[in-house]
Amino acid sequence: xxxxxxxxxxxxxxxxxxxxxxxKINNCPIKNxxxxxxDDMSTDGTREMLRETVEPMVDKVIYHEVNTGKGxxxxxxxxAATGDVVIIQDADMEYDPNEYxxxxxxxxxxxxxxxxxxxxxxQRAKGYLANRLANKGLTLLSNIMTGQRLTDxxxxxKAFEREVIQSIDIEEKRFGFEPEITAKIxxxxxxxxxxxxxxxxxSNEEGKxxxxxxxxxxxxxxxxxxx
Length: 227
What we know:
Elements: E1 5-11, H1 18-26, E2 33-39, H2 46-54, E3 60-63, H3 70-80, E4 85-88, H4 100-108, E5 114-118, H5 129-146, E6 158-161, H6 162-166, H7 177-187, E7 193-196, H8 212-226
Parallel strand pairs: 1-2, 1-4, 2-3, 5-7
Antiparallel strand pairs: 4-6, 5-6
């Protein structure tokens, strides 16, 4: 890909996986890239590791002084991006950076402005059944409200033309970001393209942070931002 890719990593208490995911990012097929980490006031030693070890390895580390949630961290990271294309990368090991080309190449080729990497497109679903059912339900409701035809609205791997994502005012602080951004992209008249990606789900014990309250908030966001 000739265009520059910005990778935005929202980070909260990920000291056990951060170095491994950074190693994968540094060895991914895309060489022209910018890595931005936004630490959302981590309390487990991640912050200290970023200052002592990680800062020289990446382009920018931005430190929040107040925990704002994933949506807040992404808003900060998007504003700092300088690449032609921007992709979200969680700081855990659920998504594989080797698949960046699959997600961002349709944008680089001018075939799409926004691409979502679907965990459920043409492959066997993984992860907890309750989480999968909730995701399918939220994606269906989002599709009804927006007219998109997505299979995985809640995916981490979302890629955007930088001008598109920087033009959107992100209001949601936590995981309500997913339906919010989908609705606002739709209101811009943009059709979201999906491509299949791999997925390696982690358990709640391993640090998964989405809870029941986030599901109810997502329902509210689908209705609120799609009106």
